[in-house]
């Protein structure tokens, strides 16, 4: 590529060699969910969502105060704008995989000798770009919590009401979207992993169709009462299944 202004010609490679899932790009575009920098030209998606939810929370608090209500009253939430409801945004990330998720839990690392720390620490950079690491960061960025605006010069009772209302809104959001990060991947079973390529064999297609249908049937909450060895490894890691995503889209939990 080049020439580009004062820069000489350069050679670039596909970004997939470094991070092939696209999750790293999604994390980089989040903006951290913090207040935007005055020098920032474009706010991240997590920052914009947090700003919107803070405004919705302030609106709900003002309406409750004007109506003489208490913070212990159930919040009114809606998926569409309305005068009688406050609209909160909860982002969701759906990650599709064509290979099995491992059920094997890595063993707890042991303390390393100080002399070997520099050598063992070389793997830290790779671990920070691993798929599970990026998914865990997205869980933090998409956490459905309501930010409560700073309280004004009010009494202790009013402050308690505000805290109770903010807490009830956060609980309602978490109940509505219990798993903001959903991983759709074949369950561990005797089968052939779908290969990398444009054409899949009939057996591979049938296997993917079967596991997709299975994921659409059982939510993580429904698997909660089963023995740990029968639960999905994604549910244990804090990710939702396809059934959890469908429940949100259909208006259930």
What's this, in brief?
By secondary structure, this protein is mostly helical.
**H/E topology pattern:** HHEEEHHHHEHHHH
The end-to-end distance, rounded to whole angstroms, is: 50 Å
Classify the oligomer: single chain
Tell me the structural class. Answer: mainly alpha
Spatial ordering of strands, largest sheet: 1-2
Q: How many runs of DSSP E, i.e. beta strands?
A: 4
Average of the residue pLDDT scores: 74
> Please, how many helices?
10
Low-confidence stretches: 70-74, 78-84
Strand count, sense and barrel status of the largest sheet are: 2 strands, parallel
Helical content, roughly?
25-40%
Shape: globular
| Integer-rounded radius of gyration | 23 Å
Structure overview:
The structure is a single chain. Helix content is 40%, strand content 5%. The protein has helices at residues 23-28, 45-66, 117-120, 123-128, 131-141, 156-176, 202-215, 220-223, 233-237, 242-249; strands spanning 77-78, 86-87, 93-96, 181-184. The protein has a two-stranded parallel sheet. By secondary structure, it is mostly helical. The longest helix has 22 residues, at 45-66. It has ten helices and four strands.
Helix/strand layout:
Elements: H1 23-28, H2 45-66, E1 77-78, E2 86-87, E3 93-96, H3 117-120, H4 123-128, H5 131-141, H6 156-176, E4 181-184, H7 202-215, H8 220-223, H9 233-237, H10 242-249
Parallel strand pairs: 1-2, 3-4
Q: Which characteristics define this entry?
A:
two-stranded parallel sheet, globular, mainly alpha, 253 residues, 10 helices
